[in-house]
Amino acid sequence: MKILFTNPTPMIKYGMQKGFEKNGWDTARIEVPEQTVGGLSAKIEAFRPDYLFTEGGVETKRFIYPVLEKYQIPHIYWAVEDPIGNSGLAMEWAKRSVLSLTPDLEMLPNYRKSGFHAICTPFAMDPDYYYCYPPDPHFASLDAIHIGNNYDVFPERRQAYKYIIQPFIDLGKSLEVYGFDWENPTHRFNTPHEYDKGYLPHEKSVIAYSSARIVLGVHSITNSRTMQSMRTFEILGCRGFFLTQRTRAIETMFENHRHLVWSSSYAETVDLMKYYLSHESERKKIAEAGQQFVYENHTYEKRAREIISAL
Fold first, then answer.
1. What mean pLDDT is reported for the chain?
2. Backbone dihedral region of 178: left (phi > 0), alpha (psi from -120 to 50 degrees) or beta?
3. Does 57 have pLDDT greater than 80?
4. How far, in Å, CA of 48 to CA of 195, rounded?
5. What is the C-alpha separation between 70 and 76, in angstroms, rounded?
6. Residue 58 in contact with residue 89, Cβ under 8 Å?
7. What is the pTM of this model?
8. Region 106-135: what's the mean pLDDT?
9. Bridge-partner residues for 110, per DSSP?
10. Are the CB atoms for 100 and 79 separated by under 8 Å?
């Protein structure tokens, strides 16, 4: 079987596409310059896919919808905007898809109530890309690193900045924060200039995860049993020691102080920071267990196999 991916994001390029290939499928993807009606049509004519696969649908509607109407190729939609976009965007795509995938288990009844075929497909990682890279001297010198944009619209995420990131600043730890808007004056949380390191290419993030003593994580959605930041799986795959915001998904899918560590308060983060920065062997033991756990349970090969079964 052949599947064509219409959005070349890292979770496709380094993830889901590899998962389908490991299940024996022929795959192809279009790149950003090809994301036009003409570009997608030419790729379809050349590759002749049995399925199209789209991850995220805000910007891709403009060139995919017309092509779907023209070619009538079965379409799979991964609603990575769920739960925020579930009632509108996801249902719009579901009408045009033979299968919808949601990373948020709680959204499945909404699809089924509307008569759409859907399964829960959480984020994951591919071990051939997310593994422990040789340590980079700079990142290895850091007490902690955080990679992600400063989103101001999610209240729980904003609160997590204050008790996951801020303690490392207040206690003068060697911390670097990567992403956009960390000094945006209109946002309710900001980092001092010396901690804001700007954009970090995805290809360098795996090196940072593999090297820093602690990798910090926050999440926009906190009440789902499955929906969480994709970085959870990527960090663990790189054998990073992950100190993250406590959420329902983190509690449901992982074990505290075994696969990672979680915090729900400023004081708890301070305690975790002090303890694990001075106990390297325990950090490494947890990081190794976390990597082994995602390698066994949360690979894109497994996710793709579940999708193929649903098809």
1. 97
2. beta
3. no
4. 48
5. 16
6. yes
7. 0.97
8. 97
9. none
10. yes
